[in-house]
Write a structure and sequence with these properties.
Radius of gyration: 18 Å
CATH class: Alpha Beta
Number of strands: 11
Helix content: 25-40%
CATH superfamily: Vaccinia Virus protein VP39
CATH topology: Rossmann fold
Number of helices: 8
CATH architecture: 3-Layer(aba) Sandwich
Order of helices and strands: EEEHHHEHEHEHEHEEHEE
Structural class: alpha/beta
Strand content: 25-35%
Strand order of the largest sheet: 6-5-4-7-8-11-10
């Protein structure tokens, strides 16, 4: 297949009419939009196929969680940054994993919840962290709920989803008007990303199926009713930002 055959009609983020072949890694091809910098797998795997990588629910839930100690410490270290937006508020960790951030938020929030697609992760969180509420739900189920939150934390999730606009629709559904979403994801535009992009460890399809720059998320979040109010500096190639629902 040549590069011209790998182009598609439109960019999922900005609807630009053309995207072009960018690079191939692990036998997966990425396309790039020259208008918004977005790169994404083309063809994009189905979400059910991707979910198999993040769930292992046929096994009994383990009593431990990988790097649980450091995960919990980092969750509490983040609290001062979250406090202006989450103190006394209704909060959610969207893609909560083992529940560490939702648990930390429970010490400053009016209420703290976590959702994840992994039954094992949710079972671990329920077993260990009683202060927060945890549920196993997918996008379709979340869109049927009436729950709204003042502060939604979603870390290292957005790069894993097959339908970026469904993720954003769900996020917009969950955040109250005037509320905040705090997002982290690998930063394609960071100066420490290798010039030879193939060498970048975060470019790891099919685990990560898409990548963003500050320009990309500005356009994407505006399209779905948010305004990016702050980008946080990070020494490593991490894109960390706070957005507000308008």
């Amino acid at each position: 297949m040549n590069n011209a055959e790998k182009s598609i009609a439109a960019c999922p983020v900005c609807d630009h009419a053309e995207t072009n072949y960018f690079v191939t890694k692990n036998n997966y091809s990425f396309n790039q939009c020259n208008e918004c910098d977005f790169i994404f797998l083309s063809p994009m795997p189905d979400q059910n196929e991707l979910n198999e990588q993040y769930t292992d629910d046929e096994k009994v839930a383990e009593p431990t969680y990988n790097k649980s100690g450091s995960r919990l410490r980092r969750a509490f270290i983040k609290l001062p940054r979250f406090t202006p937006y989450a103190f006394g508020k209704k909060t959610l960790d969207f893609g909560c994993g083992g529940g560490f951030v939702a648990y930390a938020l429970s010490f400053i929030a009016k209420s703290s919840s976590g959702i994840d697609i992994s039954e094992n992760a949710v079972a671990y969180a329920k077993q260990r962290f009683k202060r927060a509420n945890y549920s196993c739900m997918d996008f379709a189920q979340l869109l049927e709920t009436n729950e709204k939150y003042d502060f939604v934390y979603s870390s290292e999730v957005i790069e894993h989803v097959s339908n970026i606009n469904l993720y954003m629709k769900t996020l917009a559904h969950l955040v109250k008007k005037g509320g905040y979403a705090y997002i982290t994801t690998p930063d394609l535009g960071h100066p420490k990303v290798p010039k030879n992009i193939i060498e970048w460890s975060m470019l790891c399809p099919p685990i990560h199926v898409q990548h963003f720059t500050q320009k990309t998320v500005d356009i994407l979040f505006k399209r779905h009713g948010f305004k990016v109010v702050k980008f946080y500096k990070h020494k490593k190639p991490g894109l960390i930002f706070l957005s507000q629902k308008l």
